[in-house]
Write a structure and sequence with these properties.
Elements (H helix, E strand, L loop, with lengths): L8 H7 L5 E5 L5 H16 L3 E6 L7 H6 L2 E4 L7 H10 L7 E5 L2 H10 L3 E5 L3 H8 L5 E3 L4 H9 L9 E2 L9 H6 L10 H18 L6 E6 L2 H12 L5 E6 L2 H12 L3 E6 L8 H10 L3 E7 L1 E2 L4 E2 L2 H10 L3 E5 L12 H4 L3 E5 L10 E6 L1 H9 L9 H9 L9 H17 L1 H21 L15 E5 L6 H10 L2 E2 L1 E2 L8 E5 L6 H15 L8
């Protein structure tokens, strides 16, 4: 967990409790607190949880403790964690992340930390006791009478907020490796350790993109749109124009960004099922010598459509015009020649899509020509002044506070990608897309984009006849899957399935099973 690896992964995530074993230590809770917890016992027990008591040597369990606990596990007193391991073994719970510990003392909560418990709950009835427990860093501090509500909200089998198989176009399901990485040490971004991490991330991103070392990277705290806004504002000189290739919502977004920055826009458009024609870009460039840059979306996730960015870039480069590419949902998944061979000057992407990181780290890769352009363009923004970032990075610092946990996660994701190898990652994306194409065609719901123009991660399908999107979404969510609504003109008639992140073909087979069940006619009522 949380790799979506098996056919039944989503079903398990949708139905299992987060915590299956609650443990207390003998002598830690008052009789009153034990009595209050006992009132919650039946509901929690009926939901599948087990109650256990760790009983240290030379101590007799009290009557209230015996009334609450189903399992008595001999073990040393807290803060030693070994009694918790004994309780896990006795309860037949094999995953320590399904262990929950409740305590009113620092010693018990420390034992929970040492054991790696999945839930650590402090119990306090006075403000003074609550302040004392804060230093033990539990997940939450409650009164004993609030436990039933807490268990129902966070840990029960029918809790609302839980792990699901995300089939939306990012954020994606990511590995535990990435989740563990984001809990790295607190770090000041002015220290050399941060600069070392940033340098490592830059080197790995350039390697993924096939860019030489004379390319720059600007790291921003924000979503992919932050990277789009940063490169758009930096690429067009005052009084010149930006040509925007638009055949979906994200092309529209780039045009909106440009206009709000005071940049004049020339549009080359197509419908959201048709790639931009490089010949139309060439004609627009020839018709307007004031165009300073071309912006194109590599993977338009409105429908899962790929645009011919290499060919479009070639037309721009022939005319001395720079090219900006939105690779937010393509880098790491789609084929793209090494950047130095493409003529691309700015490439925007983000951590939380095909690179399998978490949201919060957006970045721009910039060619030497692009760096010269940044120096020529007066800043249109304080935060998105890319020249300021490049100057700061030369001094091994940054102009603003970065999203350090997101960067930790991105580094782990890039290390994971190196272990997996880029070719194998891309092959997985191909295999998943091929499976979805086959399965949905068999159901009579062929993807709307022509096969030769489809991406490897996003599919836009027509809604099943007579079914509203909300109905389909909610049925699949109940089974552990999150799909995504259509966009643009087809928002009311389509939906999207996106296979990004830590997700196997076998897990998608489980999704197709759930989809067939969701669209099956309801049985007629007997008369």
């Amino acid at each position: 967990m949380p790799w979506a690896e098996h056919r039944d992964t989503a079903q398990r995530w949708a139905s299992e409790r987060a915590i299956t074993l609650w443990v207390i230590f003998s002598g830690d809770l008052s009789e009153s607190d034990l009595g209050t917890l006992r009132e919650s016992k039946a509901a929690v027990q009926e939901d599948g949880a087990i109650w256990a008591l760790v009983l240290p040597p030379n101590r007799a369990a009290s009557t209230p403790e015996l009334a609450l606990a189903e399992i008595i596990s001999p073990g040393p007193a807290a803060p030693a964690p070994f009694g918790l391991f004994a309780a896990l073994q006795q309860a037949g719970v094999e995953d320590v992340r399904q262990l929950g510990v409740m305590g009113a003392s620092r010693a018990v909560l420390d034992a929970a930390h040492r054991a790696g418990a999945g839930a650590i709950v402090g119990l306090a009835t006075t403000p003074e006791a609550r302040r004392t427990l804060v230093l033990s860093q539990p997940d939450v501090i409650i009164r004993p009478g609030e436990f039933a509500a807490l268990d129902a909200e966070r840990y029960a089998s029918d809790r609302a907020h839980r792990e699901r198989v995300l089939l939306n176009p990012g954020p994606a399901v990511v590995s535990d490796r990435v989740h563990r990485a984001v809990s790295g040490p607190d770090l000041c971004h002015r220290e050399p350790e941060y600069s070392d991490i940033l340098d490592t991330v830059r080197a790995r991103l350039l390697a993924v993109a096939g860019a030489p070392d004379d390319w720059a990277m600007v790291m921003l705290a924000g979503s992919g749109t932050a990277a789009l806004e940063g490169m758009t504002g930096a690429a067009v000189r005052p009084g010149r124009k930006l040509l925007v290739c638009q055949n979906g919502i994200y092309g529209e977004r780039v045009a909106t960004i440009a206009r709000r920055l005071g940049i004049s826009v020339v549009m080359v458009t197509a419908n959201d099922l048709t790639p931009i024609d490089p010949a139309h870009v060439a004609a627009a460039l020839d018709a307007d010598p004031e165009i300073d840059a071309v912006a194109v979306i590599h993977h338009e996730t409105t429908t899962g459509l790929l645009n011919p960015v290499v060919e479009i870039t070639a037309e721009a480069r022939k005319r001395g015009v720079l090219t900006l590419v939105d690779a937010i949902s393509s880098l790491g998944a789609e084929d793209l020649p090494p950047l130095a061979e493409t003529g691309i000057d700015f490439l925007a992407s983000t951590s939380n899509k095909c690179l399998h990181g978490l949201p919060g780290a957006a970045f721009i890769l910039v060619s030497p020509r692009g760096q010269e352009r940044i120096a020529d363009v007066p800043p249109r923004s304080l935060y998105f002044d890319l020249g300021n970032y490049l100057q700061a990075q030369e001094k091994r610092t940054v102009p603003f506070t970065p999203a350090i946990p997101a960067l930790y996660g991105l580094l782990a994701a890039l290390e994971e990608l190196e272990d997996e190898e880029l070719a194998n990652r891309q092959a997985l994306y191909r295999a998943r897309a091929d499976y979805l194409d086959s399965a949905f065609t068999e159901m009579g719901l062929a993807a709307r984009v022509a096969p030769q123009h489809r991406s490897r991660s996003v599919r836009s399908f027509p809604l099943p006849e007579g079914m509203a999107y909300d109905t389909l979404h909610d049925r699949l969510k109940a089974g552990g899957y999150i799909i995504y609504a259509g966009l643009g003109d087809a928002a009311q008639t389509t939906f999207r399935v996106c296979a990004l992140g830590a997700l196997t073909v076998e897990a998608l087979e489980g999704f197709v099973d759930a989809f067939k069940q969701a669209i099956a006619p309801e049985p007629a009522l007997a008369v």
